[in-house]
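*** Fold description ***
***
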Amino acid sequence: MSALLLLARLFSASVRGQMQYPGSAIALGVAQFFTTIIDILAAWALFDRFGPVQGWTFGDVALFFGMVSVPFAIADFLSRGFDVFGTEFVRTGNFDRVLLRPRSAALQLIGHEFRLSRIGRLAQGLVVIGLSTSALTLDWDAGKLLLAAWTIAGGVALFIGLMVLQATLAFWTVQSLEVMNLLTYGGVQAAQFPLSIYAGWFRNFLIFVVPLGCVAYFPVLALLGKPDPLGAPDWLLPLTPAAGFVFLGVAFLAWRLGVAKYTSTGS
Protein backbone atom coordinates (compact mmCIF):
# COMPACT_ATOMS: atom_id res chain seq x y z
CA MET A 1 0.00 0.00 0.00
CA SER A 2 1.34 3.43 -0.91
CA ALA A 3 1.98 6.00 1.80
CA LEU A 4 -0.77 8.29 0.49
CA LEU A 5 -3.32 5.48 0.42
CA LEU A 6 -2.36 4.47 3.94
CA LEU A 7 -2.76 8.06 5.15
CA ALA A 8 -6.14 8.25 3.41
CA ARG A 9 -7.32 5.14 5.26
CA LEU A 10 -6.01 6.42 8.57
CA PHE A 11 -7.75 9.73 7.92
CA SER A 12 -11.02 7.94 7.18
CA ALA A 13 -10.75 5.85 10.35
CA SER A 14 -9.95 8.92 12.47
CA VAL A 15 -12.89 10.89 11.07
CA ARG A 16 -15.29 7.97 11.51
CA GLY A 17 -14.17 7.56 15.10
CA GLN A 18 -14.73 11.24 15.92
CA MET A 19 -18.08 11.31 14.15
CA GLN A 20 -19.39 8.60 16.45
CA TYR A 21 -20.09 11.62 18.66
CA PRO A 22 -21.00 14.29 16.07
CA GLY A 23 -22.32 16.74 18.64
CA SER A 24 -18.99 16.74 20.46
CA ALA A 25 -17.01 17.11 17.22
CA ILE A 26 -19.13 20.06 16.08
CA ALA A 27 -19.03 21.72 19.49
CA LEU A 28 -15.22 21.47 19.61
CA GLY A 29 -14.94 23.01 16.14
CA VAL A 30 -17.27 25.87 17.03
CA ALA A 31 -15.36 26.46 20.26
CA GLN A 32 -12.08 26.62 18.32
CA PHE A 33 -13.61 29.19 15.97
CA PHE A 34 -14.87 31.53 18.69
CA THR A 35 -11.87 31.08 20.96
CA THR A 36 -9.41 32.13 18.28
CA ILE A 37 -11.53 34.85 16.68
CA ILE A 38 -11.39 36.81 19.94
CA ASP A 39 -7.79 37.75 19.05
CA ILE A 40 -8.78 39.53 15.84
CA LEU A 41 -11.68 41.25 17.60
CA ALA A 42 -9.21 42.60 20.15
CA ALA A 43 -6.99 43.88 17.32
CA TRP A 44 -10.00 45.53 15.67
CA ALA A 45 -10.87 47.27 18.94
CA LEU A 46 -7.34 48.64 19.26
CA PHE A 47 -7.22 49.95 15.69
CA ASP A 48 -10.72 51.37 15.97
CA ARG A 49 -9.68 53.29 19.09
CA PHE A 50 -6.16 54.41 18.19
CA GLY A 51 -6.02 54.26 14.38
CA PRO A 52 -3.12 53.03 12.19
CA VAL A 53 0.15 51.93 13.81
CA GLN A 54 3.30 52.94 11.91
CA GLY A 55 1.18 53.15 8.75
CA TRP A 56 -0.39 49.69 9.20
CA THR A 57 -4.19 49.57 9.13
CA PHE A 58 -6.57 46.99 10.54
CA GLY A 59 -7.03 45.53 7.05
CA ASP A 60 -3.27 44.95 6.76
CA VAL A 61 -3.08 43.27 10.15
CA ALA A 62 -6.14 41.13 9.36
CA LEU A 63 -4.36 39.74 6.31
CA PHE A 64 -1.24 38.95 8.36
CA PHE A 65 -3.51 37.35 10.95
CA GLY A 66 -5.41 35.20 8.48
CA MET A 67 -2.37 34.12 6.50
CA VAL A 68 -0.68 32.72 9.62
CA SER A 69 -3.83 31.21 11.15
CA VAL A 70 -4.69 29.10 8.08
CA PRO A 71 -1.33 27.26 7.79
CA PHE A 72 -1.13 26.79 11.54
CA ALA A 73 -4.58 25.17 11.57
CA ILE A 74 -3.60 22.83 8.72
CA ALA A 75 -0.28 21.92 10.38
CA ASP A 76 -1.99 21.32 13.71
CA PHE A 77 -4.49 19.07 11.92
CA LEU A 78 -1.67 16.98 10.40
CA SER A 79 0.79 16.77 13.28
CA ARG A 80 -1.13 15.47 16.30
CA GLY A 81 1.21 12.50 16.66
CA PHE A 82 4.26 14.75 16.97
CA ASP A 83 2.38 17.06 19.34
CA VAL A 84 1.73 14.29 21.89
CA PHE A 85 4.86 12.27 21.13
CA GLY A 86 6.55 12.75 24.50
CA THR A 87 3.60 11.82 26.67
CA GLU A 88 1.82 9.21 24.53
CA PHE A 89 4.75 7.47 22.83
CA VAL A 90 8.08 7.94 24.64
CA ARG A 91 6.91 7.98 28.24
CA THR A 92 4.58 5.01 27.76
CA GLY A 93 6.93 3.00 25.55
CA ASN A 94 4.46 2.96 22.64
CA PHE A 95 7.18 4.24 20.33
CA ASP A 96 8.79 0.79 20.51
CA ARG A 97 5.74 -0.64 18.75
CA VAL A 98 5.88 2.13 16.14
CA LEU A 99 9.46 1.18 15.30
CA LEU A 100 8.52 -2.49 14.87
CA ARG A 101 5.98 -1.76 12.14
CA PRO A 102 7.09 -1.85 8.49
CA ARG A 103 6.41 1.85 7.94
CA SER A 104 8.37 4.96 8.76
CA ALA A 105 7.80 6.37 12.24
CA ALA A 106 7.08 9.84 10.83
CA LEU A 107 4.33 8.50 8.57
CA GLN A 108 2.70 6.69 11.48
CA LEU A 109 2.79 9.78 13.66
CA ILE A 110 1.20 11.91 10.95
CA GLY A 111 -1.60 9.36 10.74
CA HIS A 112 -1.99 9.04 14.51
CA GLU A 113 -5.02 11.34 14.67
CA PHE A 114 -6.64 14.01 12.49
CA ARG A 115 -8.49 16.40 14.79
CA LEU A 116 -11.65 17.73 13.16
CA SER A 117 -11.89 20.50 15.75
CA ARG A 118 -9.04 22.31 13.94
CA ILE A 119 -11.51 23.08 11.15
CA GLY A 120 -12.83 25.79 13.48
CA ARG A 121 -9.47 27.56 13.49
CA LEU A 122 -9.15 27.10 9.74
CA ALA A 123 -12.58 28.68 9.22
CA GLN A 124 -11.58 31.55 11.48
CA GLY A 125 -8.48 32.24 9.38
CA LEU A 126 -10.48 32.20 6.15
CA VAL A 127 -13.10 34.54 7.62
CA VAL A 128 -10.38 36.99 8.69
CA ILE A 129 -8.84 36.90 5.20
CA GLY A 130 -12.31 37.72 3.88
CA LEU A 131 -12.55 40.66 6.29
CA SER A 132 -9.16 41.90 5.13
CA THR A 133 -10.20 41.59 1.48
CA SER A 134 -13.27 43.69 2.20
CA ALA A 135 -11.37 46.31 4.21
CA LEU A 136 -8.58 46.68 1.64
CA THR A 137 -10.63 45.92 -1.52
CA LEU A 138 -7.98 43.39 -2.57
CA ASP A 139 -8.16 42.05 -6.11
CA TRP A 140 -7.40 38.32 -5.92
CA ASP A 141 -6.11 37.68 -9.41
CA ALA A 142 -4.46 34.39 -10.43
CA GLY A 143 -0.99 35.58 -9.43
CA LYS A 144 -2.08 36.53 -5.93
CA LEU A 145 -4.00 33.30 -5.47
CA LEU A 146 -0.91 31.30 -6.42
CA LEU A 147 1.25 33.38 -4.09
CA ALA A 148 -1.26 32.88 -1.26
CA ALA A 149 -1.25 29.10 -1.82
CA TRP A 150 2.58 29.08 -1.91
CA THR A 151 2.68 31.15 1.31
CA ILE A 152 0.26 28.81 3.08
CA ALA A 153 2.26 25.77 1.95
CA GLY A 154 5.46 27.28 3.34
CA GLY A 155 3.68 28.09 6.60
CA VAL A 156 2.35 24.53 6.92
CA ALA A 157 5.88 23.18 6.40
CA LEU A 158 7.30 25.52 9.02
CA PHE A 159 4.72 24.70 11.69
CA ILE A 160 5.01 20.96 11.08
CA GLY A 161 8.78 21.42 11.43
CA LEU A 162 8.25 23.04 14.83
CA MET A 163 6.09 20.08 15.91
CA VAL A 164 8.76 17.66 14.69
CA LEU A 165 11.40 19.51 16.72
CA GLN A 166 9.12 19.37 19.75
CA ALA A 167 8.84 15.61 19.33
CA THR A 168 12.60 15.30 18.84
CA LEU A 169 13.29 17.02 22.15
CA ALA A 170 11.18 14.34 23.83
CA PHE A 171 13.96 11.81 23.17
CA TRP A 172 15.95 13.65 25.81
CA THR A 173 13.20 15.16 27.95
CA VAL A 174 9.46 14.56 27.74
CA GLN A 175 8.88 17.91 29.47
CA SER A 176 9.56 19.87 26.27
CA LEU A 177 6.01 20.96 25.49
CA GLU A 178 5.94 24.27 27.35
CA VAL A 179 9.29 25.30 25.90
CA MET A 180 8.11 24.64 22.34
CA ASN A 181 4.83 26.46 22.97
CA LEU A 182 6.90 29.64 23.04
CA LEU A 183 7.77 28.98 19.39
CA THR A 184 4.49 27.50 18.15
CA TYR A 185 1.60 29.34 19.79
CA GLY A 186 3.81 32.27 20.77
CA GLY A 187 5.20 32.45 17.25
CA VAL A 188 1.70 32.47 15.79
CA GLN A 189 0.77 35.38 18.04
CA ALA A 190 3.88 37.30 17.02
CA ALA A 191 3.45 36.62 13.28
CA GLN A 192 -0.11 37.98 13.35
CA PHE A 193 1.36 41.49 13.30
CA PRO A 194 3.93 43.14 10.97
CA LEU A 195 7.52 42.40 11.98
CA SER A 196 8.50 46.03 11.51
CA ILE A 197 6.79 46.97 14.79
CA TYR A 198 9.10 44.70 16.83
CA ALA A 199 12.59 45.27 18.20
CA GLY A 200 15.49 44.40 15.90
CA TRP A 201 16.70 41.33 17.82
CA PHE A 202 13.20 39.84 17.82
CA ARG A 203 12.75 40.49 14.09
CA ASN A 204 16.05 38.74 13.38
CA PHE A 205 14.98 35.76 15.48
CA LEU A 206 11.72 35.44 13.52
CA ILE A 207 13.55 35.70 10.19
CA PHE A 208 16.82 33.79 10.60
CA VAL A 209 16.23 31.33 13.49
CA VAL A 210 12.55 30.39 13.32
CA PRO A 211 11.65 31.91 9.92
CA LEU A 212 8.05 32.87 10.68
CA GLY A 213 8.66 36.19 9.00
CA CYS A 214 9.54 34.38 5.78
CA VAL A 215 6.18 32.60 5.63
CA ALA A 216 3.90 35.18 7.24
CA TYR A 217 5.40 38.64 6.67
CA PHE A 218 7.42 39.06 3.48
CA PRO A 219 5.00 37.23 1.13
CA VAL A 220 2.02 39.05 2.67
CA LEU A 221 3.77 42.32 1.82
CA ALA A 222 3.86 41.11 -1.78
CA LEU A 223 0.13 40.34 -1.61
CA LEU A 224 -0.50 43.84 -0.25
CA GLY A 225 1.75 45.39 -2.89
CA LYS A 226 3.77 47.22 -0.24
CA PRO A 227 7.54 47.65 0.01
CA ASP A 228 9.30 46.19 3.03
CA PRO A 229 10.04 48.85 5.69
CA LEU A 230 13.00 46.69 6.72
CA GLY A 231 14.60 47.05 3.29
CA ALA A 232 14.14 43.61 1.71
CA PRO A 233 14.07 43.86 -2.12
CA ASP A 234 10.66 43.42 -3.77
CA TRP A 235 11.82 40.45 -5.90
CA LEU A 236 12.72 38.49 -2.75
CA LEU A 237 9.35 38.79 -1.01
CA PRO A 238 7.46 36.06 -2.96
CA LEU A 239 10.38 33.60 -2.65
CA THR A 240 10.73 33.58 1.14
CA PRO A 241 8.13 30.83 1.90
CA ALA A 242 10.78 28.38 0.68
CA ALA A 243 12.41 28.91 4.08
CA GLY A 244 9.55 26.92 5.62
CA PHE A 245 10.50 23.84 3.59
CA VAL A 246 14.18 24.28 4.48
CA PHE A 247 13.22 24.47 8.15
CA LEU A 248 11.12 21.31 7.81
CA GLY A 249 14.06 19.50 6.23
CA VAL A 250 16.35 20.53 9.09
CA ALA A 251 13.71 19.42 11.60
CA PHE A 252 13.52 15.95 10.04
CA LEU A 253 17.32 15.68 10.11
CA ALA A 254 17.16 16.36 13.84
CA TRP A 255 14.33 13.81 14.10
CA ARG A 256 16.44 11.12 12.44
CA LEU A 257 19.23 11.85 14.92
CA GLY A 258 16.79 11.50 17.81
CA VAL A 259 15.41 8.20 16.48
CA ALA A 260 18.96 6.87 16.08
CA LYS A 261 19.73 7.78 19.71
CA TYR A 262 16.49 6.30 21.06
CA THR A 263 17.14 3.44 23.48
CA SER A 264 13.58 2.48 24.45
CA THR A 265 11.85 3.27 27.72
CA GLY A 266 12.52 1.89 31.17
CA SER A 267 10.07 0.43 33.66
